[in-house]
Amino acid sequence: DFSFQVEIQCQPLNATDQFGIIFGLNNSSENIEYFTINNSQKMYVGNRLWYSYYTELTKSAIKPGETNKLFVLKKGTMLYYFIIKI
Q1: Distance (Å, rounded) from C-alpha 51 to C-alpha 78?
Q2: Residue 70: which pLDDT band, with cuts at 50, 70 and 90?
């Protein structure tokens, strides 16, 4: 079990450029998870094993062009992803 959070800010070239965090085992290219957002207030959660994102959500908590706080919690086999208002 683990948890971590990051504060991230990105000034992308366009609203659909994604930025976020990637994490996983450093000895396996298949066991990588990612949690990204963009300036169109979209959130993406995915996994390298499936070569795609699990879901695309629109989140009003994402502040375009400003600092955003992303939080990941793993409890047992479940991963939880949060955007925390600053």
Answers
A1: 19
A2: very high
